């Protein structure tokens, strides 16, 4: 089938599971609700507590908003597909989902990169931190991160939409940019070149400030006092765990879409293909909420205040 104006795609990775699909549906609903509540709660805590209106927490707020954005680009779609017997998706919605998921990944890496630079300034240049990382600069950084990711992938999307496609079956649970390009029977040289360029911009460029920051932080830790080491460990551990976790999920998804993974059990492939969009939105609020004392204390204060207010209303 050769068609430049396909109206829908078929998702070929779904398997027939009978009545078990309702169990998968409920589990997915619960995961989505937990992600929304956890990330929204931390956004509210940061916004309402003036003591958290600092650069690091504003970057975290951007990170949590991005988790909601990425999750919403996938979970409602998954819920519909789980209950459906025919796994199709309209072409416009497919391209919209590709845009959401790929911009989510780009924003995630960029946000983690600027957070590593923020930690470098706080640990290695504490006397200059307040002048180098002001609230205005934080807002500018966040706006640039989001606009940069949107504009970069709009170019990718515009290149994909012009392709003439020879099929409409995508072997995935959701729409994937590379798998759509593989369906093309027209020349994809420009797409492939810009795709590689996009991977460099999305992954390798953010890794440069991350490596630079952690090399400097490690130097300070080895040569600094115990208090400096404790500060570095307490603030950098959640960031490192988040970065490594997300990198693992993205690496597997890139490998799976480009190489033959038929040797990997089907259920494991399904779980790992969703890993970076499911585990990351769950992990970040848990890691930052539990590890960072100011957020943890603010959550306790807000919860206790709410309990006391409710108790007073009952009395």
SS field, number of helical segments: 10
What is the percentage of strand-forming residues? under 5%
Residues in helix, %: over 70%
Strand arrangement across the biggest beta sheet:
2-1-3
Query: Unreliable stretches, pLDDT < 50, 5 or more residues?
Result: none
What order do the helices and strands follow? Answer: EHHEHHHEHHHHH
Could you say which overall geometry the principal axes of the C-alpha atoms support?
Answer: globular
Mean pLDDT over the full residue set: 84
Q: Rg from C-alpha positions? A: 22 Å
* Count of DSSP strands: 3
Task: Report the end-to-end length measured between terminal Cα atoms.
Answer: 71 Å
Major sheet: 3 strands, mixed
Secondary-structure content class: mainly alpha
Q: What does this protein structure show overall?
A:
The chain is an all-alpha fold and 315 residues long. The protein is 77% helix and 3% strand. The protein has 10 helices and 3 strands. It has helices at residues 21-48, 55-83, 91-124, 129-132, 135-161, 177-182, 189-223, 226-258, 266-291, 293-314; strands spanning 8-11, 88-90, 169-170. Strands 2-1-3 form a 3-stranded mixed sheet. The mean pLDDT is 84.
């Amino acid at each position: 089938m050769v068609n430049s104006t396909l109206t829908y795609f078929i998702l070929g990775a779904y398997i027939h599971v009978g009545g078990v699909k309702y169990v998968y549906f409920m589990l997915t609903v619960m995961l989505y609700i937990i992600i929304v509540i956890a990330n929204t709660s931390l956004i509210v805590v940061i916004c309402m507590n003036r003591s958290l209106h600092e650069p690091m927490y504003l970057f975290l707020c951007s990170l949590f908003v991005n988790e909601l954005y990425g999750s919403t680009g996938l979970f409602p779609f998954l819920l519909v597909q789980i209950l459906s017997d025919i796994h199709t998706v309209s072409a416009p919605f497919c391209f919209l989902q590709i845009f959401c998921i790929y911009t989510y990944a780009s924003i995630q890496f960029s946000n983690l990169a600027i957070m590593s630079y923020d930690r470098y300034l706080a640990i290695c240049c504490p006397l200059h931190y307040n002048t180098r990382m002001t609230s205005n600069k934080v807002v500018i950084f966040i706006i640039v991160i989001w606009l940069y990711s949107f504009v970069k992938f709009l170019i990718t999307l515009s290149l994909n939409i012009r392709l003439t496609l020879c099929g409409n079956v995508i072997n995935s649970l959701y729409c994937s940019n590379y798998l759509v390009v593989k369906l093309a029977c027209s020349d994809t040289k420009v797409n492939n070149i810009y795709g590689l360029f996009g991977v460099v911009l999305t992954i390798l460029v953010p890794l440069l400030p991350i490596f630079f920051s952690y090399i400097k932080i490690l130097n300070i830790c080895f040569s600094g006092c115990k208090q400096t080491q404790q500060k570095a460990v307490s603030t950098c551990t959640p960031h490192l765990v988040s970065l490594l976790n997300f990198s693992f999920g993205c690496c597997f998804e890139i490998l799976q879409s480009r190489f033959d993974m038929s040797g990997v059990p089907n259920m494991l492939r399904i779980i790992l293909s969703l890993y970076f969009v499911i585990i990351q939105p769950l992990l970040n609020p848990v890691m930052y909420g539990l590890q960072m004392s100011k957020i943890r204390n603010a959550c306790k204060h807000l919860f206790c205040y709410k309990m006391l207010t409710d108790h007073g209303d009952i009395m």
